Structure to design on (145 residues):
C-alpha cells in the first residue's frame, strides 16, 4: 500500500515537473525566434549569427514577458504545492486537482499572452492561477494552526 503522503508528493512531483518543463521551453523559444528573425540584443550575437541589434523587438519582448510571468507564478506554486502535500493539508486528489487547474490556467495564460488575444482572457487565466496559490497557502496555514 502506498503511504498517503507519498501519493500526494508523487502528484506534486508530476505536476511540478510538467510546469518546470513548460518554464524551461521559453529560453529555447526566445532563442529560436531571435535567430529566425535575426534580431538580437547584443553585438556579439549579431557578429556570430548576422542580423541586427534590436533589444525592443515586439514579438521577442512579448515572449520574454510571458516567460517572466510564468516564473513569477510557477515558482511560488511549486513551493506551495509541496508544502501542501507534505503538511497533510489535503489529499492526493486535491493536490492533483489544484495542480491540473493551475497548469491549465498557465498554459491558457501563455497562449493568450503570446497570441496577443485581448483582455480579459489573460487576466482571467492569471486570476485562476492566483486563486490556486492563495488556496494552497490558506489551506496550509489553517491546517497547521
Amino acid at each position: 500500500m502506498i503511504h498517503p503522503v507519498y501519493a500526494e508528493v508523487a502528484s506534486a512531483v508530476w505536476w511540478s515537473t510538467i510546469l518546470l518543463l513548460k518554464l524551461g521551453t521559453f529560453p529555447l523559444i526566445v532563442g529560436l525566434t531571435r535567430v529566425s528573425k535575426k534580431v538580437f540584443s547584443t553585438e556579439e550575437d549579431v557578429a556570430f549569427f548576422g542580423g541586427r541589434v534590436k533589444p525592443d523587438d515586439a514579438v521577442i519582448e512579448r515572449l520574454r514577458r510571458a516567460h517572466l510571468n510564468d516564473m513569477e507564478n510557477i515558482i511560488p506554486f511549486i513551493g506551495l504545492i509541496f508544502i501542501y502535500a507534505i503538511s497533510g493539508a489535503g489529499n492526493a486528489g486535491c493536490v492533483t486537482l489544484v495542480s491540473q487547474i493551475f497548469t491549465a490556467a498557465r498554459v491558457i495564460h501563455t497562449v493568450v499572452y503570446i497570441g496577443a488575444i485581448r483582455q480579459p482572457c489573460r487576466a482571467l487565466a492569471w486570476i485562476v492561477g492566483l486563486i490556486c496559490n492563495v488556496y494552497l497557502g490558506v489551506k496550509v496555514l489553517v491546517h497547521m494552526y
